[in-house]
Prior knowledge:
The protein is of the alpha+beta class. The protein has three domains: 74-147, no CATH class; 186-274, Pdz3 Domain (Roll); 278-404, no CATH class. The protein is built from 13 helices and twelve strands. Strands 5-4-7-8 form a four-stranded antiparallel β-sheet, with helices on one face. A two-stranded antiparallel ribbon has the order 1-2. A hairpin with a 2-residue loop joins β7 and β8. The radius of gyration is 29 Å and the shape is elongated. The two termini are 23 Å apart.
Amino acid sequence: MNIALAILGLALLVFIHELGHFSVALAVGVRPRKFYVGFPPAVAKVRYRGIEYGLGAIPLGGFVKVPGMHRPAPSDLDVHLGRALQEAPELGGPIERVKRELADGDMAGALAHLPALESVVRGAGLTAQAARAAERGLTDLRDGLGLDAYWRQRTWKRVAFIFAGPAANVVVAVALLAAVFMIGVPIGTTRVVDTVSPDSRAQAAGLRAGDEVLAVNGRPLASDQISETIRASKGEPLRLTVRRDGQETTLRPVGAKLDDGTYRLGFALNATYEQYGPLMATRLAGETTWEVTKAIGAALARLATGENREEVSSAVGIVQGSSQALDAGFRYYLQVLALISLSLALLNLLPLLPLDGGHITFSIIEGLRGRSLGREVYERVSFVGIAFVLFLFAIGLSNDIGRLSG
């Protein structure tokens, strides 16, 4: 159940990210063509008011497809209509006329020749595969030549559309942390036992939930000294004295077990919490988000030098961590979701294509130049960005496999 909820939480964060792109695209006049959570093939899809909404079978992200992310180029026709041209050489003339207009930068001329090319393609008797590729290419070309194409928009509109996705994740992170502060954050513990882990040393000693720990090895302790004393025991036998049903009881001695470098008996004390009002909770959430942002930025910088690679996780580790947080309690799950949402925003803002930060950087560069960069520039830079993302994924997956296998 926890795994399903963890996957659902991750999918929700992706949905919110794409919803940010989608909403701002509509607001600035760039009408999206598709809105997907997950990558194709589609598990389910529906078309409403000219937009295709879908759920992809690969739950590793999502996308919003807007018309004309790049300025149309003659090479687009070679890619999408190459097979069609092999099967129907009569397409050569119409294709060359459109390519010539694109090469000259005459978008209106290319659009004027497009209906004739579409008509010839429909009547060419192509195989199903060639016809699908040609249809997809012609649709993308028509979108790219339209007035609502992304590449035609003013710089601020393009930046707003791209930035909206990461911004939505930052807002969600702040909202989730604010909810945690309003629910209450732990500021200490009592001496009353909250939970005892199954098959733990504490259970073997006879400790029960509801017991009040009074002393360890005959020494009375305050609540904040109990865990410190257990950690410092080095595995030596410990005898807990507890109050149960109004009577003091001394339990049989047990030694703490070394777990992840720390000696533990396997029980948790009741925590004391402090709650905040909405305004203070939002302020504290904003401050926490900023501190975590700086920490993530520093971690990414160290990663570039080869340090802290063990901190990277893939989707597998994210789901596992979310599931463990659910075991610990709902407030901890909200904290983990906030961290994931913030990490998703910051990773996407790296100035690398095809990440959002790369598109923002290129939009600003093109705005300063006053003209679009060539498609080949995008492709070369995207190669570097994709290699970096795959590098992170490989490290994260390797780390997750290592953790799962012990």
